Amino acid sequence: AMLRLRFLTWDVKDTLLRLRQPVGERYAAEARAHGVRVQPEALGRSFREAYGAQSRRFPNYGRGLGLSSRQWWVDVVKQTFRLSGVHEDAVLTLMAENLYRDFCGARNWEVLPGAGETLSRCGQRGFRMGVVSNFDNRLENILSQCNLRHHFEFILTSEDAGFVKPDGRIFEKALRLGGVPPEQAAHVGDDYTRDYRAARAVGMHGFLLRTAGQGEELDVPPEHILPTLSHLLTLVEK
């Protein structure tokens, strides 16, 4: 069947970009720079705990709850170190500010294999594109620094939209920004619930990026599965 696609929306984390190193490693390196020794594994566990608690207490980076996303992240970083036994306020503040700034750019993020080429080729084929991501407002800068920003008409983050995937309203907002009906749009992402199922629920097409051995148990037809990003081109050209 011809997919009459005009617009592609993209998830970012683990679809187009990934962290260069685990969070615990980066946090441990920052601590070392201040003469503080903490094990990366402990920091990784502490980060997951702090991030989870903050997300439950202040969903979507505290949007609408009087917290800036910057303050939201600074609190997560400080709590991560506190849970790992670091309690000195001055050094906590310094590390948190540094890490917040550091995760703004290409130093901590790398483009996934095939992402740049796939985006370029989609653009050459005439697909218009946008980003739909559960991310804070640093994302535009990160994409610019990683030299991907120019592929997209808009960068819609959950912080901007006020809705978090899988909430269909973030996809509806993207469709309004793109000026296309859902049946002419497809979303590409790596998460079954937040990306694939959520986009399908508003009537969009969906493609699920899945490395080998992942996701066979899910009810996704094989023609919607991308073993690599490069596979997208063969699917959308059908």
From TrEMBL:
InterPro entries per record: HAD-like_hydrolase_domain, HAD-like_sf, HAD-SF_hydro_IA, HAD-SF_hydro_IA_REG-2-like, HAD-SF_hydro_IA_REG-2-like_cap, HAD_sf
Q: Which Pfam families match?
A: Hydrolase
> GO cellular component annotations, sorted alphabetically?
nucleus
Report the family membership: Belongs to the HAD-like hydrolase superfamily.
NCBIfam families xref list: DREG-2, HAD-SF-IA-v1, HAD-SF-IA-v3
Q: What is this protein called?
A: Haloacid dehalogenase-like hydrolase domain-containing protein 3
